[in-house]
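Work Package 3 (structural annotation) set out to generate three-dimensional models for the target panel prioritized at the project kickoff. During this period the team completed the workflow that converts sequence records into discrete structure tokens, so that structures can be stored uniformly alongside our sequence database. As a representative example, we reproduce one entry of 383 residues exactly as it appears in the project archive.
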Amino acid sequence: MPDQPHLPAPGARPDAGPYDALLLLSFGGPEGPDDVVPFLENVTRGRGIPRERLKEVGQHYFLFGGVSPINAQNRALLDAIRADFTGAGLDLPVYWGNRNWAPYLTDTLREIADAGHRRVLVLATSAYASYSGCRQYRENLADSLAVLADEGRALPRIDKLRHYFNHPGFVEPMIEATLTALDALPETVRDGARIAFTTHSIPTAAADTSGPVPTHGDGGSYVAQHLDTARVIADAVRAATGVERPWQLVYQSRSGAPHIPWLEPDICDHLEEVHAGGAPAVVMVPIGFVSDHMEVLYDLDTEAAAKAGELGLPVTRAATVGADPRFAAAVRELVLERAETERGRRPRRCALGALGPSHDICPAGCCPARTPRPAAAGTDEEP
């Protein structure tokens, strides 16, 4: 008889054991004009980003009163996760820490340790494999744990939830958002609209080495995972509308030295290209972002929308997943899935598309850093 995934008994209370806390780990953002420059100094520390570029990015924040929406969106996601856990009967406290702004990760881990938690799961607000979206967060965790060790605190064991780019609770809200954005176009151009799936551009060298070593190659896991998610959404939109629409994965939010190759095409260049090719409209779908933070509001809603206006090209933008209850439920499912695995069972692992569920534990050589550093929640270079 084939090995079947373990399914909890009907009506059984959800059990996260051996885990006793969940940490939402995010990027952070300024919450007022006085925060902008210190925040950008945190973000770019050690990267050699030209000051001119920092000033340019800073102006993006000042256009919105010096406030990034990401912290408010993380608070909304925390509320949604806690409400879902409570409604499902899952007793698991949820904490929040950031890489670059308050509440800082080290402070939150100190709070977690002082509360006596010893097995902590981490949900990063990045759905895909990459250095900045996974490995760097693992390095941040290792750095913070080292601080706590120096302070003489008992260290919790940290495990990171798998990449959720293809979990139904992440993908299905984006399918719905894409259909809503299509409906917002004038009826005369709707059926001919192109779909531009957007994500953060990263250096091609970082993309090529993203994910486990066997997947390294053209774009690595970063590009492959985005393409797989985009294909699932495009197929679902076609099934719902009966219209086959051309689509492409494009990029935004490039930063850094201009001589270093980054993933292309940029969304604005793409809009010019499809307009020249006769496309009557474009729907922008930011599949690379969990929430509508600054790079979505500025690079798409401001900069790309302005480019489309210059071209006379109708565009709409699909909403990100944000605090959608389906995503909050997906977080619970990922927590319980990992808990079952830790208890030696084989849980059901939800995934759409062709790639299947991602790995639970990052293997050696996964999304390597340019300069090797200790990283928690993986098989190599543990603190």
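The chain has two domains: 21-164+323-342, 168-317.
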